[in-house]
């Protein structure tokens, strides 16, 4: 019973992330090659298939900077075109003029 529930929740998570991703692409599709993204909250260890959806499917991965709380070489290997910043908390200084979009993921 617990496994069935887990599979169903994973399916719902993927479905919801796909919906958000499609909305995102529609909204920011005018000039994506010139859009820079800071994705705050990526996970460097992907426990679920729906983790790091943007990093998996966005066609301009070199325009993404991922902000995470831990380092994992597997993330670097899997997404070599994505810049990874490790941040342990506190104040994060960012020059906003370098970004087009700021995304907070879970």
Which series of helices and strands comes N to C?
HEHEHEE
| Strand ordering within the main sheet | 3-2-1-4
Major sheet attributes: 4 strands, parallel
Mean pLDDT rating: 79
Binned strand content? 15-25%
Low-confidence stretches: none
Helix content: 25-40%
Overall 3D geometry?
globular
Number of strands: 4
What is the structural class?
alpha/beta
Question: Could you give the distance between the termini?
Answer: 26 Å
Number of helices: 3
Q: Using the CA coordinates, give the radius of gyration.
A: 15 Å
Number of domains: 1
Concise structural overview:
This protein has one domain (2-104).
Walk me through what this model shows:
The structure is a single chain. The chain is α/β, with parallel strands linked by helices and about 110 residues long. The chain has one domain. It has helices at about 1-25, 55, 75-80; strands spanning about 35-40, 65-70, 85, 100-105. It has a 4-stranded parallel sheet, with no helix packed on it. Helix 3 (about 75-80) links the parallel strand 2 (about 65-70) and strand 3. The chain is globular. The two termini are about 25 Å apart. The model has no long low-confidence stretch (mean pLDDT about 80).
């Amino acid at each position: 019973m617990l496994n069935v529930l887990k599979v169903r929740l994973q399916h719902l998570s993927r479905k919801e992330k796909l919906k958000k991703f499609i909305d995102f692409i529609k909204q920011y599709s005018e000039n994506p090659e010139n859009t820079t993204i800071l994705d705050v909250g990526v996970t460097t260890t992907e426990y679920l298939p729906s983790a790091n959806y943007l990093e998996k499917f966005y066609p301009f991965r070199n325009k993404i900077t991922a902000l995470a709380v831990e380092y994992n070489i597997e993330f670097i290997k899997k997404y070599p075109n994505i810049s990874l910043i490790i941040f342990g908390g506190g104040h994060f200084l960012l020059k906003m003029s370098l970004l087009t979009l700021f995304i907070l993921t879970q």
